[in-house]
Amino acid sequence: MFTYYMPTQVFFGKGCIAESGQVLADLGKRALLVTGRHSAKVNGSQDAFTGKLDELGISWYLFDDVENNPSIDTIRRAAAFAKEKGVDFVVGIGGGSPMDAAKAIALLCTDDLDDEQLFKGPYKKPLPIVAVPTTAGTGSEVTKVSVLTNVHAGTKQSINTPLIFPVYAFADPSFTESVSQTVTIDTAIDALSHAVEGYMSKLSTPMSDVWAEEAMRFIGLHLTDLKGAIAYPVREDLLYGSMLAGLTIAQTGTTMVHSMGYMLTYYRGITHGRANGLLLPAYMKLMEESMADKAERVWSILGLSGSDDFAALMKDLMGDTVGLKDDEIKKFVTMTMPTSGIKRTPYDVTAADLTTIYKAL
């Protein structure tokens, strides 16, 4: 037996907000727009969305102070602002950080959760959420997860509840055209990581595998196209692949790669997608042992000969090394072992395994 639940209505393609944004009228008369400080203004997404809201007679308020890896304090400031303005729905415009922030803000607008309850629940029904991705990476526009920085836990942690699936997602590839080469690489690797981890997860199903394979196909086509000028059709494929990878992890969750990567992001400041890319080759080496059939399928879809070929590709794209100290590794391993990502990994992961992988970085 397996289940499949995906309540988000997706509008995909250039101009989708102008063409289909009339559905927003059903959500209320006041909206909170949640963005980062710059990109939504530069790539045209904010203007496209506010233009549609103005056309529909919907008042809007802007909270544009979301940082990378948003903090609980930021979420609480935004929720207080939203409640002061009496908004009816929340819109996340940007990469994973603004979209994840919007989800948590929507929860806090209807429920006075303390910092512990924020990550554990139980939850009341939040305000409706709308997501507008402007990078091709997180897939947050179609997931039930919000990842925040939790200073109490000393790492990034997830809010995970079907209540925060966005009602609508507007995925316009043109908004990704101004993304830098570095961010394009990082986010593409993040999306690939979602597809691969979801495919290998203990919670994978025949339906999630369909999305995972399709995501790998669209992303894999362009892993050698991520440097230099990127044509619009490539941007379109990357955003589509990212969304499909999001559909995958909405059903399966992620595995040890994300759990280990959160440590690199929180303590070493390595971007999320890049952290995943550093860890993926060692992960796939383990998967060749425990899930040989699926690992071989991954290599076939990506057009690679195996984990060594994959490791060479990741090194070419990123070229990073980390050089962790022994005390750091010990701390990271201790914090990673109890996580849900380890439990979802279809390999009997030991502390020694994690230590070996971290040391290799």
Helix content: 40-55%
Got a strand count? 8
Please summarize the sheet with the most strands: 6 strands, parallel
Quaternary organization? single chain
What is the global morphology?
A: globular
Number of helical regions = 16
Q: From N to C, what is the helix and strand string?
A: EHEHHEHEHHEEEEHHHHHHHHHH
Roughly how many Å apart are the termini?
A: 39 Å
Strand content is 5-15%
For the biggest β-sheet, the strand order reads: 1-8-5-4-2-3
Task: Round the mean pLDDT to the nearest integer and report it.
Answer: 96
Report the radius of gyration as a whole number of Å. 19 Å
- Structural class call reads alpha/beta
Poorly predicted ranges (pLDDT <50, ≥5 residues)?
Answer: none
Any overview of this molecule?
The chain is α/β, with parallel strands linked by helices and 361 residues long. 53% of the residues lie in helices and 11% in strands. It contains 16 helices and eight strands. It is globular, with a radius of gyration of 19 Å. The mean pLDDT is 96.
How does the SSE layout of this entry go?
Blueprint: E1 9-12, H1 16-20, E2 30-34, H2 39-42, H3 45-56, E3 59-63, H4 72-85, E4 89-94, H5 96-108, H6 115-120, E5 129-133, E6 145-150, E7 155-160, E8 168-171, H7 181-200, H8 206-220, H9 232-252, H10 256-268, H11 272-290, H12 292-302, H13 307-318, H14 326-336, H15 340-344, H16 351-360
Parallel strand pairs: 1-8, 2-3, 2-4, 4-5, 5-8
Antiparallel strand pairs: 6-7
